[in-house]
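Here comes just one.
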Amino acid sequence: MSRIGKMPIKLADQAKVDVTDNMISVSGPKGTLSQAMVEEVTITIADGVLSVQRKDDSKRARAMHGLYRMLVNNMVEGVTKGFTRKLEITGVGYRAELKGDLLALTLGYSHMIFFKAPGDIKIEVPDPVTVLVSGIDKALVGQIAAKIRSFRKPEPYRGKGIKYEGEVVRRKEGKAAGK
């Protein structure tokens, strides 16, 4: 039995789950998310607890068991609490600012980089070296944060670039002086 797949999901009071033939829809105070289901797993709801079971012990069913449990758990958590990724900008002259709904990044290139996030993702810049990406879909929040990070990944010699909060950039030593 999958260790992750067999764990029950406690539904918050605000979350409403609707399971149809091959779709699961979760709605809450922050919005609504839906996901197509595979036929190898089934979802049951009893007493405010949602559980995911697999129909048989085939290799695909075992693989989908834990996956769909985590997808549904992320949907429930997203519509009730939401997800946030924090990006830190390091480097002299590197900064971020919001211009309307565009994120404007100055990252040492000859031009500014402008980035527009999808409608359901919110980008905040509390200070010029911090960017917060938030939304209800965990995968989309992570994808947008990764896209912003890809504009200037942290480099190992000086540590300049955009990194996730808590990310450790392994530093390298520069060229050794001549002997």
